[in-house]
Design a protein that fits this description.
Mean pLDDT of chain A: 89
Distance between the termini of chain B: 46 Å
Order of helices and strands of chain B: HHEHEHEEHHHEHHHHHHHHH
Radius of gyration of chain A: 23 Å
Largest sheet of chain B: 5 strands, mixed
Number of helices of chain A: 11
CATH superfamily of the largest domain in chain A: P-loop containing nucleotide triphosphate hydrolases
CATH class of the largest domain in chain A: Alpha Beta
Helix content of chain B: 55-70%
CATH topology of the largest domain in chain A: Rossmann fold
Largest interface: A-B, 26 and 13 residues
Number of strands of chain B: 5
Number of domains of chain B: 2
Mean pLDDT of chain B: 81
CATH architecture of the largest domain in chain A: 3-Layer(aba) Sandwich
Helix content of chain A: 25-40%
Order of helices and strands of chain A: EEEHEEHEHHHEHEHEEHEHEEHEH
Structural class of chain A: alpha/beta
Low-confidence stretches of chain B: 201-209
Oligomer: heterodimer
Number of strands of chain A: 14
Structural class of chain B: alpha/beta
Strand order of the largest sheet of chain B: 2-1-3-4-5
Distance between the termini of chain A: 43 Å
Shape of chain B: elongated
Strand content of chain A: 25-35%
Strand order of the largest sheet of chain A: 6-7-8-3-9-10
Radius of gyration of chain B: 29 Å
Largest sheet of chain A: 6 strands, mixed
Number of domains of chain A: 2
Number of helices of chain B: 16
């Protein structure tokens, strides 16, 4: 790729600085900054409408922020150099349903300026990478959900970009396909590609991502490795989940008095020592609440996510 | 329960603007168009344009010309229209220029009053065959010659009383002022000739004469006389353009599918810009429309004896220009609409109206003058006029310049607007 030589090799593959974007009264991005290094996978977690997709679309140049800057190897988002260095796998199945897998890849390859044997090589590599060699002549619309997802991914990495943005690539696929998709992403990462991965599945983020940024209301509210996030959110404390039978307002009143958070009839506490459980349960009994079950667990990424973004429905 | 099902359907219909437009606006629009064309509203019955050449310049011919000019159903032209207000008035039509004008489509009928007409203007007897009025017509308009023939006889009856009286006296003196042996012989000959013609069934309808009245008229088709299937080329163009518009709109609608699926966003994140994307689709839709026209005319050639192969250059020029214009039209509709349903409703509405006003459903010469002028706002009218020039009038390619210019300008204009409207997809 001729423009690759124009990229600043010493620059950070992806650097997002203080992006701000509003859609009407809604704050989509509020002073968002992020960097991704070569061979690193950064997970973007956030509730629906938190601003993840707006951030991704800002990076690929499809959204123009009001302020802030996106640089891909030092080049501005939307510039031809940045476009060619970036690969984008959108959440939607952005492929042509009425043409075959191979024709889809050929079309997107040409859109990226590939031709001749370079195009043929790229298509062959992608079909192999996405495990679609056997179905290369199949119309895209006739593929299974998992195959469509893999084709969608292949169309985004066909031109061998050095920064790839995955926007919920595993929505609606079975565990087998999901596993294959993980392997595909790990292969890219192993080859030194800088990755951003948005998802609602915590176990995916835990498996694939080196760092995780939690986005809510257009801001990155926490960022770091999984362990760092857990430590910064919960310290050494553990979570207690206690489910009670009884009037909801009584449960809420008691939980409020003990710094617990209620979801349905389950109250969530964090405790430093396991011995604190007995005191809490005794207190509940005296408040007239009937315990149904109780569990103690170490906080995980989901705990961090729910703790930071809350349990209220967003849409 | 039946009412509940109906209620649900009503709720869905209320929110489907496209279906509402198709259900209520389209029928009203169509009703209005047809009522205007065929309802003779406000005395807008189509007038027949005729070219009149008076070679005789006799009292009888002047009376006849004045009689025809006073007919409100006719627009009589004795000279071409001046090219500009300041230009000197053009010379009157001659028989040759009138024939050329009919061939060029300036008027569907020309009447030539020949020298000598005034000597025997009324058609009695054998010698009335000597100087018949010549009627030159364009076969594509089957109605105009019949109207002109009828009005010609009417004008003769009402506008030449003195001539008719004089002629009657002449005939009386000639045939009834006492029969000499020679007169007897002549009357006998006339009677015998009339008997023969009656026996042959040609007394009233000699093949080269339209003997429908007291004025002898010799009719000759100067356009389309050698066409095997006179209206096939017209319908190939008329129907073809209408379906081209539908195809172009449907094909351009792929843009909406791509926008909805996110493919458009993805494509625009590559090296492809919006202008290149739209231009690529315009090229595809133009070629698709052109191939569709080729298929239609080839079918007309194979099945309906349309003289396709002898008109290839004109067909290619008109076909490409028409295809370009309809493709740009489709691009604009697709760019302006937000959903396929909107596109379907709007394109159906516009295309059917354009096709009815523009002559795809019935020839424009059947329409009132105002409607014919309105037709010029449509792609259909210009395309059909161009194809008619090629296949009907056998005009050379250079004569297509007005249609080519308009269609190309329309295509460029519509595409420019489509590009402007498509900015909504570019960036947020």
């Amino acid at each position: 790729m001729t423009t690759e030589t124009q990229l600043r090799e010493t620059a950070m593959p992806l650097k997002v600085e203080r992006l701000v974007k509003h859609f009407g009264e809604t704050v989509a991005l509020d002073d968002v900054s992020l960097t991704v290094r070569a061979g690193e996978c950064v997970g973007l977690l956030g509730p629906n409408g938190a601003g993840k997709s707006t951030l991704i679309r800002s990076i690929v140049g499809r959204v123009i922020p009001e302020s802030g800057r996106v640089a891909v190897f030092g080049r501005a988002a939307g510039s031809m150099e940045a476009r060619l260095a970036l690969g984008w796998v959108p959440q939607e199945l952005a492929i042509y349903p009425r043409i075959s897998c191979k024709e889809n890849l050929g079309s997107f390859g040409r859109y990226y300026g590939l031709s001749g044997h370079k195009l043929a090589e790229a298509v062959a590599w992608c079909l192999h990478w996405a495990a679609l060699e056997d179905r290369q002549g199949e119309l895209a619309r006739n593929l299974s959900g998992g195959m469509k997802r893999r084709l969608n991914m292949a169309a985004g990495v066909l031109h061998r970009p050095r920064v790839v943005l995955f926007d919920e690539p595993t929505v609606g696929v079975d565990p087998q396909s999901r596993n294959r998709i993980f392997e595909m992403i790990e292969a890219l990462k192993g080859a030194g590609t800088a990755l951003i991965y948005t998802t609602h599945y915590m176990e995916e983020a835990e498996r694939l991502c080196d760092r995780i940024a939690i986005v809510d209301h257009g801001r990155i509210i926490a960022e770091g490795t999984k362990d760092a996030l857990i430590a910064s959110t919960f310290g050494t404390r553990s979570q207690v989940l206690a489910r009670f039978a009884g009037p909801a307002d009584a449960i809420a009143q008691w939980a409020g008095g003990n710094r617990g958070r209620v979801t349905d009839s389950t109250v969530e506490f964090t405790i430093e020592q396991a011995t604190e459980i007995a005191r809490l349960l005794e207190d509940a009994r005296q408040a007239g609440l009937e315990l149904v079950d109780v569990s103690l667990r170490r906080p995980n990424l989901e705990s961090v996510f729910l703790h930071l973004t809350g349990r209220e429905l967003r849409d | 329960m039946i009412l509940q099902v109906a209620r649900t359907a009503l709720l869905a219909l209320r929110r489907d603007r496209g279906a509402l437009v198709l259900s209520f606006v389209l029928p009203l629009a169509f009703f209005s168009i047809f009522a205007t064309i065929f309802g003779k509203q406000n005395d807008t019955t189509p007038k027949v344009k005729i070219i009149l050449v008076d070679e005789d310049r006799s009292e009888a011919s002047r009376d006849l010309v004045n009689g025809l000019k006073s007919e409100t159903s006719l627009v009589v032209m004795t000279a071409p229209a001046a090219k500009s207000k300041t230009a000197p008035p053009p010379a009157d039509y001659t028989a040759a220029t009138a024939e050329a004008a009919v061939k060029a489509g300036d008027a569907p009928v020309a009447l030539i009053i020949p020298r000598g007409f005034g000597q025997h203007p009324v058609a009695f007897g054998r010698d009335a065959d000597e100087s018949p009025i010549q009627l030159l017509n364009d076969q594509s308009d089957a109605i105009a010659p019949q109207i002109v023939l009828g009005l010609l006889q009417k004008a003769a009856m009402t506008s030449m009383p003195a001539v008719m009286a004089q002629e009657s006296m002449n005939y009386t003196s000639k045939y009834l002022g006492g029969f000499t042996p020679e007169q007897r012989t002549k009357v006998d000959e006339e009677l015998e000739a009339l008997r023969e013609r009656t026996a042959n069934g040609t007394a009233a309808t000699r093949p080269d004469m339209d003997n429908v009245g007291i004025i002898r008229v010799k009719a000759r088709a100067v356009v389309g006389e050698d066409k095997k299937s006179p209206m096939i080329s017209f319908y190939a163009a008329a129907i073809g353009v209408m379906f081209l518009l539908f195809t172009a709109s449907g094909s351009a609608g792929a843009l909406l599918d791509e926008a909805e699926s996110g493919t458009l966003d993805r494509v625009l994140s590559t090296r492809v810009t919006m202008t290149k994307l739209l231009a690529g689709k315009l090229v595809f839709n133009t070629l698709l429309a052109f191939i569709q026209l080729v298929a239609m005319f080839l079918w007309g050639w194979a099945v309906f004896k349309l003289d396709f192969l002898n008109h290839l250059p004109g067909f290619v020029v008109m076909g490409l220009c028409t295809a370009f214009a309809v493709a740009a039209f489709g691009m604009l509709l697709a760019s302006a609409c937000h959903t396929r349903a909107q596109l379907g409703a709007l394109s159906t509405l516009l295309i059917l109206i354009m096709s009815s006003v523009g002559g795809s459903m019935f020839p424009r010469f059947l329409m009132p003058e105002s409607m014919q002028r309105a037709g010029l706002l449509t792609i259909n009218a210009w395309a059909i006029d161009g194809f008619t020039k090629v296949f009907w009038r056998d005009l050379p390619v250079k004569e297509l310049w007005p249609q080519v210019t308009v269609l190309l300008a329309v295509g460029v204009g519509l595409f420019a607007i489509a590009r402007r409207v498509a900015r909504r997809w570019e960036i947020a």
